[in-house]
Design goal:
Blueprint lengths: L1 H12 L3 H8 L3 H8 L7 H15 L6 E5 L3 H14 L4 E5 L2 H11 L3 E5 L7 H10 L7 E6 L4 H8 L5 E4 L4 H13 L3
Parallel strand pairs: 1-2, 1-3, 3-4, 4-5
Length: about 190
């Protein structure tokens, strides 16, 4: 069943195995083995596959938090915090700004945690692209960054994003901020 879901996700989104592997935070050979039925994903990867498959079926009834983070361990920590704060929300992680831009139209997230320093397209450019789309004008975006360059931090502060958090993120701080973002969402 996992292999069929992966094939449907790839067909629906036009992904190669490499692109899906990047989105799931695993290697290309891992996705290849799953798709060929040679191995099974860990529970967290199975959940991510199931969540993406729900999008293919049009069954995303829950609200979505999109985490845009190129560091796998940071993404896992953020996903755990999101689950603690907003357990009724579905959490989807992508590993690049490019993937975020591709996925927001499909996922229609209510809340986005956006890393600033990423390869290809940085978080500030992703933010600008998102804000150009009228349908996302009420989407709360929280920058999460390890950046220390004051010029970058100032751009993020003045961007119109809901908040800016610096890594390492404190659990209570982000949980309270996530709840506030949902409560005050227009």
């Amino acid at each position: 069943m996992v292999s069929e879901k992966i094939q449907a996700i790839r067909k629906h989104n036009g992904y190669s195995q490499e692109e899906l592997a990047r989105q799931l935070g695993v290697s290309f050979p891992t996705v290849n083995a799953w798709e060929r039925g040679k191995s099974n994903p860990y529970p967290r990867h199975k959940k991510a596959i199931d969540d993406l498959y729900k999008v293919v079926l049009g069954e995303t009834e829950t609200d979505v938090i999109l985490i845009v983070e190129d560091d796998e361990s940071s993404a896992l920590v953020l996903a755990d915090y999101c689950s603690m704060a907003l357990e009724e929300y579905e959490t989807v992680t992508v590993t690049s700004g490019y993937d975020a831009i591709l996925q927001i139209g499909v996922l229609k997230p209510k809340l986005i945690l956006l890393d600033i320093m990423m390869p290809e397209i940085d978080g500030l450019k992703v933010f600008e692209k998102i804000k150009e789309m009228d349908v996302f004008k009420d989407t709360r975006i929280i920058f999460v960054t390890a950046a220390t360059d004051e010029e970058i931090l100032e751009k993020a502060r003045n961007s119109g994003a809901f908040a800016l958090l610096q890594k390492p993120v404190k659990r209570d701080e982000i949980i309270n901020l996530l709840k506030l973002a949902v409560e005050t969402r227009a």
